[in-house]
Structure formats: C-alpha cells, structure tokens
Amino acid sequence: MPNPTAAMLVIGDEILSGRTRDANMHYLAGELAKTGIDLKEVRIVSDTAEAITDAVGTLADTYTHVFTSGGIGPTHDDITADCIAAAFSLAIDVRDDARAILEEHYQRTGTALNEARLRMARIPEGATLIDNPVSAAPGFTLGNVHVMAGVPQIFQAMVASVLPTLTGGAPLLSQSLRIERGEGDIAGPLAKLAQEFPDLTIGSYPYSHSGTFGAHIVIRGHDGARLDAAMQKLSRLFPE
Amino acid sequence: MPNPTAAMLVIGDEILSGRTRDANMHYLAGELAKTGIDLKEVRIVSDTAEAITDAVGTLADTYTHVFTSGGIGPTHDDITADCIAAAFSLAIDVRDDARAILEEHYQRTGTALNEARLRMARIPEGATLIDNPVSAAPGFTLGNVHVMAGVPQIFQAMVASVLPTLTGGAPLLSQSLRIERGEGDIAGPLAKLAQEFPDLTIGSYPYSHSGTFGAHIVIRGHDGARLDAAMQKLSRLFPE
Per the database record, which ranges form the MoaB/Mog domain (chains A, B) (predicted)? Predict the structure, then answer.
C-alpha cells in the first residue's frame, strides 16, 4: 500500500517579506519522513483570507493530510481558523471545550481572559482540538487539515500531539555518499543506476568549498534492502 | 501603480525529505522586497515532471514573475528546463549560444564537455539566457519565468544577473518594535491601529525566551511617511 501523502501550508507574511527564515517546514519534513507520510508539497502564502482559503481547499482535495502553521494567536492578523472554517463552509465560534482550556490556563497564570485571548477559543464546528502543552491555546484538526501555531516551540509540541493519531506508512529512508568529482563526471553512471532502481529516488546535490568540489548523492526510498543494494553499487562505481 | 507580483517555485526533494533547509527563499524574498516586487507565494514541489509543470503553469498565469530554483544541472534528476518548455508547449534542445558558453568555460578549466554537461545547454526555444558568473552554465528567462540554479552561491549570482533587467516598484519597507507584554494585551489596541492604517500590514510575532515574553510588532508598507506615523502611534500606545 502506498504511503499517505501530505502538504504543508505556511501562513507567512513574515517569511515572504524576507524578515524571517521558516523553521517549521524543516521540522515537519523530518517528522513526516520518520512517520511514513510522504510530504509532497509546501506552500507559503500571505496572511490574507483569500490566499489561505484557496490554498487549504486545493491542498485538502489533493493530499491525504494538510498541516498548517501560523495565524492562530489572539491578534488581528490571526485569521487562519476563520479561513479554514470558510474553506469547509462550516460555522465557527468560541467553543466551550476550548474556552475551558484557556480559562484554566489563564486562571493558573493570573492573566485576564480578555476578548482578544478568547479569540483563540474560536474553533470550527466539528473540529477536534490539538493539545498545546506549551501555552494552552489549542490547535485543531478539521477533516484532513491539521491547524497549528507558527511559534516553533508550540508548532513542534502540536506536531507531537497530532502525529501519533495518524496512520503512517513505511518511513522514508535515506543514505548519502559524498563524491569528490564534478557532477558532469558523475552524471552518466548515476543515470544508469537510477534506471536500475526505479523504486528509489536518487538525487545529486553539488557542493564546492575552499577549492574542492563534488556532489552529495542521496538515495531515498522505503525499502532498506534496496537502498543498501543501490548504495553498494554506487560505492563501486565511484571508489574513493 | 501597484507593484509587480512574484511567486517562487523551489524544485525541492531535498527539502521535502527533511534533509536540507532552503536558503534561496529567504535570499530572494529580501532582494525582491528591496526591488519593489511583491513576493506573494512560494511553492516547494518534488522533482517530478508533473509537479513542476503544473506549478509553473499556474504560477505564471497568476503572478507578474515566477522565479524557480533547482534542477538545471547535468544529472538525471535535473529536469526543470524540460518541464518549463513543456509548460509553455515549446521545443527544447541544445542551443548554440549556451553551448558556446560551456565550451569556453570547460576549455579554460581543462574539463571535457561530455554529454552530461552538454545537457546544461538545453534551453527552450525563445528563452533569454541568465548569466552565471560562478560556474558558467546559464539559467534562462522564458516569458515571465526566471529559471535559476539551486546551489545558493549560483542562485544568488543569477538573481543579481536578472533583477536589474526587471521593472520594480516601491520597495517594501518595514519597521519593528519589541513589546514586552503578552500578545493578548497587545491585540486590542493593535487591531484599532491596523484599522487606522489599512494601507499597511501590521504583523505580531510572539516570542518567549528565558522567562521573558512579548511580541515583535512589524509594520510593512511602501510609504515611509505612513510607516513613521503608524510606528509613532504604536510607540505611544505601548510606552517602554
């Protein structure tokens, strides 16, 4: 059975403007590889309702799972939950279970649960809450869309809450070999190897630093024995 | 006149698999902000013909410019040029001008221009070459799509070659203020400020480290005087 597939949607004005580098993508990619859910696409869109709603709709129709990051805090630019509800044509309002979580948290920390903070209890109809052990305000899963915070520490905690609830497949394995030769000399034999192992993906990533150059050859796939076989052939093709 | 818009397409198995963190996106975002071309979307897709061709077609129809990174080297997994040609239904073959650039470069470095390296002279019909001062093999512009290498050093050199040929707009300016208060306390006044300045985008990015927490408020827009006015109001709302 083929692995489930996934896309990630980053709500990301702060990335598109060049201000920050995304960290959640790299983290999620690694976790999904281990879980055996194949990450096929990432989209970063701006913090506008149309961009978010359109992207969620398309990605949810195309992949087994969609993971979003960002835009579920208490400020005016946090519009993700409303956009997800709109994408599924579902109602959204403050929900009692989410409100109870916030009430308990803010009571304990001696902070007022004001109108802005209460926005974080707005959850679309029919969604399941995702636990947030860092700062309480929950994410949620609606259909095949998993909605999580953008702050890396909270995003990672939410990924840890949600991934064990999903059915994974065979983990994505990878092995790599550094070859200190120009890609142009590696390319011919490598193409033949790729043809011999159509069930694996073989990538070539050139590098050059301080006068030496070459390529990292990365072999990926779900069957460890096949990876070993391909890597042994590769090593024989390019002895050190 | 509104600024031209842009999308970036990263051909990125090595990112989707969790192996590497993308660096080109952050670089391009910063350069486009300075040039006054508004980066609206980034997509990262796997190294398959269908994924690349579909994404290029959609993005080229939607935005003023599309910038791609990756997949134009000499190895079997370098299929970007062929996919771009397919997306525009144009022929692609080794082109004399690109071949001449490679011949000169490899002659000078004493390297054989073999069949694999010659693949890097495959350029779609009607495309304009993008200069590569690092390793010679050119990128190209076809219609509104700018096709560049994935190696960061080469990508950056190609961006420097191509951006001066494009018509930009007003640079994206930004100012930020760190406020050491919870986002829930900032949210109310901040929403009112955002309503007063609908021509600016005001983002709130929470942080917490070593016991202190707060948010970076980032105000972005194209009119420096408006940014100054909004930032002055913000500072008065939250005096240190």
Answer: 7-170
